[in-house]
């Protein structure tokens, strides 16, 4: 029994102590059904939170509780939002197959026998959409056999769980099996924050960061700021949870969340009915785990540059854990709920308020996910700007919106069209998020309805969302419009066509526009004409949040690692074009970097897609030399406004960026890249850092960086530097030589000096800032973080 007198004296602290004592006596609860030997450790989370809260003497946000709750040293760690680097102990690692290749190659190079934390590999990126799910999956297994065998065998040897091709998209699999309230999970994909929809802090990283965690080394993260989003009111009609993040993206832009965790809170989250009997209330849609709607919002937080996003623990999360076989975790989360919600009175660095009752359906684009338009206005905007009005293809699914309810709501619109004798005027594709979702929508008839209206059900994989789309209805360079329920719409991302105008919106708006065949259609007010020539309006979509007969798990696609993998072999054929063992990068020679050539001065937006394209290049993700042939081929050169056309300063001839870089390397000439704002936004792909290092790059000098890319550059021994005065960008000319001085006294917080030598003999000095801490400086000096890891093992 609880001593109530003690509670009156000590308040909540006594309750926490009592809970801790009771739970100490309980059996440990496994983190997942696949890892019975690894337990959820809420007690440690609580203890760390109490230590930090006492030190800081203030209420904590939810983001702070989970992040600080995983500190390696909660007693001694310096904590200052936006300034200090935290050393953290994540609970687990997840890797998708395109990035897992390089991550596992790096782990093999480390010489360690087995991963130190639960880790998984998910085969979702290498399946190209062509004709349909069954055929595309079979072809992918054949084309990628060498890579799949490598990943499966290395996973088995080093103790990593392996999800086979066809299992589904990494983020959906994580949500169904591995994410839980309070978890700290890192994943080698920028949309790892999807798991925040289940109350975890899930962060996208590069492969080298994953290797650190798998090696049992504390993981470094700059102490994030916290942006609060206060939700009030409720959703209704055609407005969906996707519109929340589309609105937030319009407010914050693609870099407004950089260095911050976005934390959703307010009466819109906590006080709306959970009964499910009120159509379109926030709890039915936003907080429905079946629609993964909180996950949708967290997933697309990557598009504002946020470190991650998170929702507080609630009853719907409990129900979802229950229904996905994790009832014990839900019961434990109930006991420790105070760790899983923000403290009253906690302070945010920025607070945004969104009234859901006033929110309109949105559609964002083209070419950037932060160009927000109400659906009611996008037709006029298209006419004004010369964007094609005809919708060529509508695509629903992806890791952002591919739940059972998403499919059900789309199917409800498709059925209305079919009942009036209509099919989609645009091509229409459907991507299920997982094998479980695919099997269930097939069983319950949603897939048939979507096919009947003209849809093609693709494989349970990323597909067109990441450029794995063998599109043949338009020629490259042909101006056209597509609408998707994806998360990202950078130039040429989906189909390798720079003239494709891609817009992102909710699955229901995609479906409506695919039926209408035009951007100039507002389903809330506009009419369609049926097969009999009669006018009608689509009724707002509806869909069950979960299947009446529960989920159909479909085919079992998981490979357990054996308990001991020492005797297993992982072979890489030296003649392979897909895989290549890594050679260590050279150590710093102890001198300043002199007379570096400017490989390219980049104009405007330069995402990781521009630096290291995906699509057909994904096949080379395990072969550093081959994939380096796509280095910066999408970046715009300031000298001539062309892509992949730069001047070789040694020969005077123009060539492709990777060709000139290779020429410089072969002739012993090191180089720099000069860039603009938010350089490296988008995907977490570390190849955008590995490739410039491999081809002789030494520094990247820009106005500002995206978080993940800046860290990836540091990990590979490059110098990510920013102009102290952004106008200094204009001082650098393509034919300059740059010397970076001050490296002998390289120290945290101490700027470096660049000496710019112009071709006319004149020179000038500029100041370059950096965010290196002492550990990261050691990475640079050793040649890379992996080199430094090996040094410490000796």
Automatic annotation (TrEMBL):
It catalyses: citrate = D-threo-isocitrate. One of its GO terms (molecular function) is 4 iron, 4 sulfur cluster binding. This is Aconitate hydratase, mitochondrial. The keyword Protease does not apply. Its main location: mitochondrion. Keywords: 4Fe-4S, Iron, Iron-sulfur, Lyase, Metal-binding, Mitochondrion, Transit peptide, Tricarboxylic acid cycle. Pathway: Carbohydrate metabolism; tricarboxylic acid cycle; isocitrate from oxaloacetate: step 2/2. One of its GO terms (biological process) is tricarboxylic acid cycle. Binds 1 [4Fe-4S] cluster per subunit. Belongs to the aconitase/IPM isomerase family. GO terms for cellular component: cytosol; mitochondrion. Residues 598-725 form the Aconitase A/isopropylmalate dehydratase small subunit swivel domain. Its EC number is 4.2.1.3. Its cofactor is [4Fe-4S] cluster. It is found in: Mitochondrion. Catalyzes the isomerization of citrate to isocitrate via cis-aconitate. It comes from the Eukaryota. It holds the Pfam family Aconitase_C. Residues 64-517 form the Aconitase/3-isopropylmalate dehydratase large subunit alpha/beta/alpha domain. It comes from Astyanax mexicanus.
């Amino acid at each position: 029994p609880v001593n109530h007198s003690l509670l009156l004296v000590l308040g909540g602290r006594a309750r926490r102590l009592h809970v801790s004592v009771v739970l100490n006596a309980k059996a440990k609860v496994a983190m997942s059904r696949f890892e019975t030997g690894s337990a959820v450790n809420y007690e440690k989370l609580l203890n760390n939170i109490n230590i930090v809260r006492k030190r800081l003497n203030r209420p904590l946000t939810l983001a702070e509780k989970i992040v600080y709750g995983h500190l390696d040293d909660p007693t001694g760690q310096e904590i200052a939002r936006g300034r200090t680097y935290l050393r953290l102990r994540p609970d687990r690692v997840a890797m998708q197959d395109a990035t897992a290749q390089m991550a596992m190659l790096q782990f093999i190079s480390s010489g360690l026998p087995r991963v130190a934390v639960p880790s998984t590999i998910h085969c979702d990126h290498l399946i190209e959409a062509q004709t349909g799910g069954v055929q595309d999956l079979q072809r992918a297994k054949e084309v990628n056999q060498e890579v799949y065998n490598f990943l499966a065998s290395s996973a088995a040897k080093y103790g990593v769980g392996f999800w086979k091709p066809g299992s589904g998209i990494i983020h959906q699999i994580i949500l169904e099996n591995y994410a839980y309230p309070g978890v700290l999970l890192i994943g080698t994909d920028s949309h790892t924050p999807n798991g925040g929809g289940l109350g975890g802090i899930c962060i996208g990283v590069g492969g080298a960061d994953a290797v650190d965690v798998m090696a049992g080394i504390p993981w470094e993260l700059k102490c994030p700021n916290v942006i609060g989003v206060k939700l009030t009111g409720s959703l209704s009609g055609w407005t969906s949870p996707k519109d929340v993040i589309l609105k937030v993206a319009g407010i914050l832009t693609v870099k407004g969340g950089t260095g911050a965790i976005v934390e959703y809170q307010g009466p819109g989250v906590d006080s709306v009915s959970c009964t499910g009997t009120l159509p379109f209330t926030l709890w039915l849609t936003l907080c429905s785990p079946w629609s993964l709607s909180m996950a949708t919002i967290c997933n697309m937080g990557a598009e504002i540059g946020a470190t991650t996003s998170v929702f507080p623990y609630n009853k719907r999360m409990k129900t979802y854990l229950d229904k996905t076989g994790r009832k014990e975790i839900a019961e434990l989360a109930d006991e420790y709920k105070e760790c899983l919600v923000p403290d009253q009175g906690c302070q945010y660095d920025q607070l945004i308020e969104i009234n859901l009752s006033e929110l309109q359906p949105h559609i964002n684009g083209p070419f950037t996910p932060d160009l927000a338009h109400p659906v009611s206005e996008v037709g006029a905007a298209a006419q004004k700007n010369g964007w094609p009005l005809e919708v060529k293809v509508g695509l629903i699914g992806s890791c952002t919106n591919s739940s059972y309810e998403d499919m059900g709501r789309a199917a409800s619109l498709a059925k209305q069209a079919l009942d009036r004798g209509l099919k989609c005027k645009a091509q229409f594709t459907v991507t299920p998020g997982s094998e479980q979702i695919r099997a269930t929508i097939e069983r319950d008839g949603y897939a048939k309805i979507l096919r009947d209206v003209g849809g093609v059900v693709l494989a349970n994989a990323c597909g067109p969302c990441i450029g794995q789309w063998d599109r043949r209805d338009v020629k490259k360079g042909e101006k056209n419009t597509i609408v998707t329920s994806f998360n990202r719409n950078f130039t040429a991302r989906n189909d390798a066509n720079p003239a494709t105008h891609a817009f992102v919106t909710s699955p229901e708006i995609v479906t409506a526009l695919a039926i209408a065949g035009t951007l100039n259609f507002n389903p809330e007010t506009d009419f369609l004409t049926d097969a009999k020539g009669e006018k009608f309006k689509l009724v707002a979509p509806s869909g069950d949040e979960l299947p009446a007969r529960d989920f159909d798990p479909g085919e079992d696609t998981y490979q357990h690692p054996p308990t001991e993998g020492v005797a297993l072999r992982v072979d890489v054929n030296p003649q392979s074009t897909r895989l290549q063992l890594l050679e260590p990068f050279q150590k710093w020679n102890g001198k300043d970097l002199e007379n570096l050539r400017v490989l390219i001065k980049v104009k405007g937006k330069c995402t990781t897609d521009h630096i290291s394209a995906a699509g057909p290049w994904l096949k080379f993700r395990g072969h550093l030399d081959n994939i380096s042939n796509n280095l910066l081929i999408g970046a715009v050169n300031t000298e001539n406004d062309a892509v992949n056309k730069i001047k070789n300063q040694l020969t005077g001839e123009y060539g492709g960026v990777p060709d000139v870089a290779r020429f410089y390397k072969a002739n012993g000439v090191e180089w720099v890249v000069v860039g603009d704002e938010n350089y490296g936004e988008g995907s977490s792909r570390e190849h955008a850092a590995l490739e410039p290092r491999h081809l002789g790059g030494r520094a990247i000098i820009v106005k500002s960086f995206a978080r993940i890319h800046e860290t990836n550059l540091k990990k590979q021994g490059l110098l990510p530097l920013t102009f102290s005065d952004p106008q200094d960008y204009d001082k650098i000319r393509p034919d300059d030589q740059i010397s970076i001085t001050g490296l002998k006294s390289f120290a945290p917080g101490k700027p470096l000096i660049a000496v710019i030598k112009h071709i006319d003999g004149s020179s000038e000095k500029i100041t370059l800032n950096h965010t290196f801490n002492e550990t990261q400086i050691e990475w640079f000096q050793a040649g890379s973080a992996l080199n430094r890891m090996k040094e410490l093992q000796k």
